[in-house]
Inverse folding.
């Protein structure tokens, strides 16, 4: 936001932003997996996903590693979760890189389509006959010995030295592929290299034309916000960005100080935004004290993880809006506008 789009650093910062958004999505996937919630299935064009992943991967590969892409632009989309598929492909590429043992080599990613008949589908556990997208990740690394090849998808099995691997990368890949009703095949020759091939069922559903653009930052009209978070960096950034967006912000890092400021001027705030997990007092405890002072104040509770029990407790004490962390400035300003306009609606948002 501070740079002109023509600045030489702008493109790099845009890639950092995209990587941050992808990391956010992966964390949300981990939380969803822990809650055993179904992932969101959409038509995913794998060509765009592979190209994005390759840009991130190239930034970390040493100069001696050649990353080659052969992508069929006519390959159909697959029905799945883009974050999970990105994670699976990134895990495979990371394994390919590690197999080179810091030596020059090549990682090849090939994307195409194929049609599996009944015998071919029967030979690939988990697949059904029909059109599939085929993704190959190949390397010129040290390969995998036949004995190890039988165990590579087992949890915690790894041929890497201590500190180099967890033994979970390929287990996660296989779980993701299976959850997408696909199959994974491995071909490897010791001291020659390995090829991992994914077969994912194609879909006729139309993918989104492009990744959803960032919503425009809504301009505030002087709404007065009390912003509380125990992370000083978040308060500093939030205060700066929301002030720039047209809001009047009072930022605090200590619950007691925030409560005192509110008690001195209860009518001086339109909305309170508070983190939940804080060492001194939780967001729920802060909200209870603020609501005792002014029962009609609109409070937004922020957290990276909301259980049904936490939502019910929030609703019980009078909090009707929640926001999942992390959030962008665009998401935050959009939410504030919606909450201010709909402050009296007795329900949980978010």
């Amino acid at each position: 936001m501070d740079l002109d789009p023509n600045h030489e650093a702008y493109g790099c910062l845009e890639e950092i932003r995209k990587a941050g958004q992808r990391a956010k999505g992966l964390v949300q996937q981990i939380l969803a997996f822990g809650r055993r919630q179904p992932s969101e299935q959409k038509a995913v064009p794998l060509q765009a996903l592979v190209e994005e992943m390759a840009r991130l991967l190239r930034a970390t590969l040493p100069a001696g590693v050649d990353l080659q892409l052969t992508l069929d632009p006519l390959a159909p989309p697959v029905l799945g979760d883009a974050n999970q598929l990105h994670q699976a492909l990134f895990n495979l590429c990371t394994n390919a890189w590690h197999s080179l043992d810091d030596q020059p080599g090549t990682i090849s990613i090939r994307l195409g389509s194929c049609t599996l008949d009944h015998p071919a589908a029967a030979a690939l556990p988990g697949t059904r006959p029909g059109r599939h997208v085929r993704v190959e990740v190949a390397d010129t690394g040290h390969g995998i010995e036949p004995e190890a090849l039988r165990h590579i998808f087992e949890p915690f099995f790894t041929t890497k030295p201590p500190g180099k691997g967890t033994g979970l990368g390929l287990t996660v890949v296989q779980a993701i592929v299976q959850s997408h009703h696909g199959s994974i095949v491995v071909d490897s020759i010791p001291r020659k290299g390995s090829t991992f091939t994914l077969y994912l069922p194609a879909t006729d559903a139309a993918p989104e034309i492009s990744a959803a653009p960032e919503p425009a930052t809504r301009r505030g009209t002087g709404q007065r916000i009390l912003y509380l978070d125990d992370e000083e960096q978040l308060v500093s950034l939030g205060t700066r960005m929301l002030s720039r967006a047209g809001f009047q912000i009072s930022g605090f890092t200590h619950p007691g100080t925030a409560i005192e400021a509110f008690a001195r001027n209860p009518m001086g705030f339109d909305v309170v935004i508070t983190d939940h997990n804080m060492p001194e007092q939780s967001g729920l405890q802060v909200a209870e004290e603020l609501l005792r002072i002014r029962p009609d104040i609109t409070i937004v509770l922020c957290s990276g993880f909301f259980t049904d029990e936490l939502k019910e407790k929030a609703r019980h004490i009078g909090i009707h809006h929640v926001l999942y962390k992390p959030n962008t400035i665009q998401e935050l300003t959009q939410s504030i506008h919606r909450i201010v306009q709909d402050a009296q609606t007795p329900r949980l948002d978010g």
In short: Confidence is low (pLDDT under 50) at residues 210-214, 344-350.
